[in-house]
Amino acid sequence: MNGYLDFLGGRNGLVGLLVLAALILLVFPLTMGVDQLSLAGRFLSFGFVAAGLVLCWGYGGILSLGQGIFFGIGGYCIAMFLKLEASTPEATAIQTTPGIPDFMDWNRITELPWFWEPFNSLTLTLIAIIVLPALFAYVIGIAMFKRRVSGVYFAIITQALVVILTILLVAQQGYTGGANGITDLRTLKGWDINTDEAMVTLYFVTAFLLLGVILFGKWLLHSKFGRILIAMRDREDRVRFSGYDVANFKAFVFCVAAVFSAIGGAMFTLQEGFMSPTLIGIIPSIEFVIFAAVGGRLSLIGAVYGAMAIGFARIAFAEAYPELWLFLMGAVFIVVVLFLPYGLAGLYEKYAPKVRAFLPSRTARAATSRESTEVRS
Amino acid sequence: MSSNTDFLLAVEDLTVSFDGFKAIDGLNFYMDEKELRVVIGPNGAGKTTLLDLICGKTKATNGSIKFRGKELTRLPEHRIVWEGVGRKFQTPSVYDSLTVRDNLEVSYPKGRGVWGALAFKRDTALQEKTQEIAESVMLKDSLDLEAGQLSHGQKQWLEIGMLLMQDPALLMLDEPIAGMSAREREQTADLLKRLAGKHSIIVIEHDMNFVKQIGRKVTVLHQGAILAEGDMDQVQSDQRVIDVYLGH
After folding, report:
1. B122 → chain A, closest CA residue
2. Which residue from A351, B27, B63, B175 has the highest number of Cβ atoms inside 10 Å of its Cβ?
3. Quick check: A235 contacting B, CB < 8 Å?
4. DSSP string, A294-323
5. ipTM over 0.90
């Protein structure tokens, strides 16, 4: 392996990445219909959040039960832009105040609020999708980590922040669309996002962005920063007394996870066609953690498989037994935590060599590794 | 009192109280450059607390700690490290899931900020230093082993090696030979003697044989204050020291 590709994790890491790329860029598009592909695209959007959790929880030891916040920031940002585009004075001529989003008009708001203004611009919106979650995570991170809040306390606080955010969104109906969220999103710069072609395009954009995010994560883990992350998880005090300001490192990885989540949220919203508080509340926030745990919390690629596995299982299972789904997912989570601490990726790492021993040929080897996951990053 | 800038470390009137209990009580403690000092004393005498105070783990209630003339009591922990104070903990604190090499490299004093760590590149200076330190702490054959696989004694050495990577002016070692075999103790004594000319070292230790092996100047702590100070023979024949510590 060439030196500058080392960060992929050597041969195994490269194979794992290529297998995932082949799966989501070739196998899925070739074998799935548009509806199913678009569904897969939404699961991939969750993969961003799960990959972020691998960095901050798996490697950094910071469990956040509040990733919905950042998923939501990304989702709402893009939703606001699309909503404004859909609310031209002509399209909203029947409103008391034409030219503002419909839900504002219903709530007797007569002027576009100031914080909506930047979302008239796609550039500013895209910047906001990256900068806002980073800023928000930085403020939370510094406030918590400088005070040495960690572990379960941090998890509970992030959970509380999710609740606060959803309550705020629901209560401020006139500014946020309330419990319904921001709906009826139609076009992006005049491009209809609800057509089949748009679904396919958005799927590919999501897939490529996700691969990019994974590459970035791998690079991060390969740097000295990555080793300090693991060191902090093992012995926080030792890192501190080796001259590092631990809080800054924690805040940074939390910011990275937040930005990943926000990109996922934005891509999800584009494919789902709306964004609402229920998509970012407590339950989704916990589900994100389950995706990462099932996939393997030390594997960026595993996290994507985790999100897809749970996603497709939900479709298969929840249609037949909707009332049992949550119990099943809870059970899966418990089983993973108790028996498979490194999730699917850990399972693969443990059994792949044994399976290979039975399969002498190269092709057979490739076939078995397809459905499985990669080795730890 | 003479100007405390002559000393490497000058601790004056240091007091810390935990809910009214004074673990360190009006302590004065001075150290010269390149000095090796052993601190002994019965359990609860405040030995570990003294190191905690110097390295910033515990904040003083009162008094001052001057290191090369700079006040440490108000600095955050990582800044105290930057000033040149290295601390080894009582139970070996190494990063179990990293290799010995990575353990040493993470302790290297470059790339200490977030951005610095992201941009950090291994250079030959680092590799040479890692090699050199690994050799001096008897771990050159274990560089690619995960630190979790090391024996207890080797972990102690690794942690000392991690401190040496920072090239600190003052090394504080809290019971460095705990859990070591007789042979390892000897090797550690040799290591400390070799280091003594290059760094100032404070060693907390219970094992009197070990203390005799390395000891030059010894400070005896008792109930948060200094009971006696001097060379080993002096201290050993001090009646107060025999009463509270050596007697049993």
Report:
1. A224
2. B27
3. yes
4. HH-TT-HHHHHHHHHHHHHHHHHHHHH-GG
5. yes
